[in-house]
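U., I forgot to send this yesterday:
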Amino acid sequence: MPQEFDYNSTRNKLILSEYGRNVQNMVKYIVALPTKEERNRYAQVVIDLMGFLNPHLRDVADFKHKLWDHLHIISDFQIDVDSPYPKPSMEAIHLKPEPLKYPHQRIKYKHYGKTIELMIEKAKSIDDPDRKRHMVQAVANFMKMAYVQWNKDSVTDEMILNDLYMLSGGTLKLEENVNLNKVEYRANTHSNNNQNNRGRTNNNNQNNRGRTNNNNNNPRNNNNNQNRNRNNGGAKKY
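Result:
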């Protein structure tokens, strides 16, 4: 007869893995006991064992209530004992969350994003002319920054002002000779870092050269060199 092995894949699924399979087997044994007196006595022992296996639950408010709820869950709500707490319902434990509501709004220009459209609507509601002009100027600068970030190409101010006019439905516009903030692609940052690193390397090389020259000019080093030359000359006479 071939030997049969007991693998976890052939066993029943662990309901609460933090308590282990032994606790689950104990609870299964308690469910099968004939009298409630025995079930109550063994259930209290298992509750103490569950608290010992998970001491972090002692920091939880009313941790005994949590342990009894776990006992019912492990038994698949089939254990019949006198619990000091109300028995939890299966619907409350396996409550499904409500589905998330995703926005289904269409973005006209995706490289500007939805935030630009909200900012434009806010600017349209401003009544003060001077404050409104500053708000529109800020929106246009933000649009130019977003365009350069995602398209990586240079963009003219006329194009930004035209897109602003289209997004606002023809209600927001700036003067044609207005100058928006200058925006450059972030890839220039990498070249600047390389230049900074090169400058640091050159400075370190210059510092090392300066230290070498100072050591050569040190009189102690000159005396040591003269002594070495005398010793070498003496060795040649022999």
